[in-house]
Amino acid sequence: MKSSFLFLIITISCFTPSALAQSSDVDGNQLLEHCRSYLGIANNDLLPLAQEQLTKMKVNAGFCMGYMSAIADSNARNEHFCAPANATIEQLVRVVTKWMKEHPESLHLNAGVISYTALRAAFPCH
Fold first, then answer.
1. Cβ of 124: how many Cβ atoms within 10 Å?
2. Could you tell me which of 7, 19, 29, 32 has the fewest CB atoms within 10 Å of its CB?
3. Alpha carbons within 13 A on the beta-carbon side of 36
4. How many Å apart are CA 123 and CA 59, to the nearest integer?
5. What is the DSSP annotation of 61-80?
């Protein structure tokens, strides 16, 4: 089961960055929902779920992983934030998710703006 989940996440994340580039209408509310799924799986906080719910959770997790991978890739060209070289996508997801939980008044904003704001706060460039 774990290998099929990993395959699903990798497959989804391969397509997500191009979809992300075409769509800027993802807001913080949507990203938070997706990234909560990602962290639920990463933390192994899976309650007994119906197959349909588990599938939705995996798709959401794949979206979050792909979105944050695209943020990290675009940062390599523009340096909006200065995360350590060994920072993982999971770490970036945790930073952005924490920021969104602490700033619910900003969840209506574009997810890219939120992500860069959170990551800049956590990893400023000196």
1. 9
2. 7
3. 9
4. 28
5. HHHHHHHHHHHHHHHHHH-S
CA gap 71, 19 in Å, rounded:
13
**Cα atoms in the 13 Å half-sphere on the side-chain side of 124:** 2
H-type helices in 1-126, by residue range? 2-22, 28-42, 51-78, 89-102, 111-122
Residues 65-82 as b/e (b if ≥16 CB within 10 A, e otherwise) read bbbbbbbbebbeeeebbe
DSSP 27: B
d(CA 15, CA 110): 20
The angle subtended at Cα 83 by Cα 78 and Cα 84, nearest 5°, is 125
pLDDT digits (tens, 9 = 90+) for 14-70: 444 434 444 568 999 999 999 999 999 998 877 777 888 889 999 999 999 999 999
**Average confidence score pLDDT of the chain:** 85
Query: Which residues, including other chains, have CB under 8 Å from residue 86's CB and lie 6 or more apart?
Result: none
Phi, psi of 27 (to 5 degrees): -110, 180
Q: What is the pLDDT of residue 24?
A: 63
Average pLDDT over residues 61-85: 92
